[in-house]
Each structure stands twice: as C-alpha cells, then as structure tokens.
Amino acid sequence: QVQLVESGGGLVQAGGSLRLSCAASRRTFSSYAMGWFRQAPGKEREFVSAIGWSGFSPAYADSVKGRFTISRDNAKTSVYLQMNSLKPEDTAVYYCAASTTNIIASVDYWGQGTQVTVSS
C-alpha cells in the first residue's frame, strides 16, 4: 500500500505559478512511475504529466507542454509539478498518482487531491 499526500494548491492569478508536491509513504517509491492528473468541474479526470522511476523522459499532455515541469526526488519519496503561465482553464483538482506499469493506462494509487484555482 502506498499513501500519497498532495500539497501546494491554491488560488493564483492567470500568468502566475504554483508548485505542487506529492509525498509518498513507501520506501519503494523509486520503483513506481509517478504522475499528475486533474479533474475540472463537470469534466472527466485527465492526464497531465508523468515521470518514470529514473526521472528521465517525462511525458506531458499537449495542453500543459512548455508550461508545466514534473520532477521527482527518490530520496525524499516525492514528486513535484511546477506550473508556470497558469491559465483559467488549468483550474481543477490535481491528483498525484502512482503506478507499477503504464501510469496513463493504469493507476495503482491515488492521492486525495489538491485544488488549483486560476483567476482571470
């Protein structure tokens, strides 16, 4: 079992930045692919970004490419999402996720979510 706890959400004006953090409970954190998903009101949960155990070759949704950066620190069992140039359409609950396989196709563990609100 892996517990994921997100932090760093909040209210920011368009064009601003936020950094989300996700702390994992398990020492075997380094064996999991980690990622971020988001869900806006009235919409389905969607993929945002993912990173493999090594930290190389991160993946991004087209909507955030060039603005968001994912990173991980295996020593701290944490994953981060730096969000720059935020837009009102980025408003959503952001969820941290962990997977032993392809995280876009199958998530083994979810965090509780953190709200990000971008005002225009």
Report what the structure shows.
By secondary structure, the chain is mainly beta. The protein contains no helices and 11 strands. Strands 2, 4, 5, 6, 9, 10 and 11 form a 7-stranded mixed sheet that branches. The chain has a 4-stranded antiparallel sheet with strand order 1-3-8-7, with no helix packed on it. Strand 5 (46-51) and strand 6 form a beta hairpin. It is globular, with a radius of gyration of 13 Å. The chain starts with a strand and ends with a strand.
Secondary-structure topology with pairs:
Layout: E1 4-7, E2 10-13, E3 18-24, E4 33-39, E5 46-51, E6 59-60, E7 68-73, E8 78-83, E9 92-99, E10 109-110, E11 114-119
Parallel strand pairs: 2-11
Antiparallel strand pairs: 1-3, 3-8, 4-5, 4-9, 5-6, 7-8, 9-10, 9-11
What share of the residues lie within helices? under 10%
H-E order:
EEEEEEEEEEE
Overall average residue pLDDT: 94
Low-confidence stretches: none
Structural class: mainly beta
- How far is the N terminus from the C terminus? 40 Å
Number of strands: 11
Biggest sheet statistics: 7 strands, mixed
**Radius of gyration of CA atoms, rounded to a whole number:** 13 Å
Number of helices: 0
Global morphology = globular
Strand content: over 45%
